[in-house]
Amino acid sequence: xxxDIDKFGGLSVGLSNRLFFRLYQCANMMHKTxxxxxxxxxxxxxxxxxxxxxxxxxxAGGVSVGDLAAFLLVSRQNLAGVLSRxxxxxxxxxxxxxxxxxxxxxRLTNKGRSLWDEDMRPVIADYYDEALxxxxxxxxxxxxxxxxxxxxxxxxxxxxxxxxxxAAAAE
Length: 171
Prior knowledge:
Order of helices and strands: HHHHEEHHH
Oligomer: single chain
Distance between the termini: 38 Å
């Protein structure tokens, strides 16, 4: 524990460093093991997140790329590549927005909905069970609480990361 004491005699810097490094490691392992879990379907964790977002009832009729990017907290540029790959696989499509013929909305295709409901959901449920082994319901609630607090702090640091109003209401 002595290695966690910063030059001011507090635990703050050393402990924060350990916390952020552990978060980094967890994110890397989540991407690695999550992609491996869905390997038979050829789906990455980034694609998993997009497909999962598109299954939300509030996005059933489609969602703009900008609103989807805001919801996922990714750049439009990063999302564009993922969407192109999912579109090439016929899991998502871009449709004309009925409210504005100039705009396009992203939505799941029937093939994408089937992939999610029939193939991915059971695998994801098993993955969650395995990844959260030993976590009680209270542990999960507490963890979600602390991750939400951290996410709020990140949004304060990066105001562009605020989700679109429709996406925020859907949570």
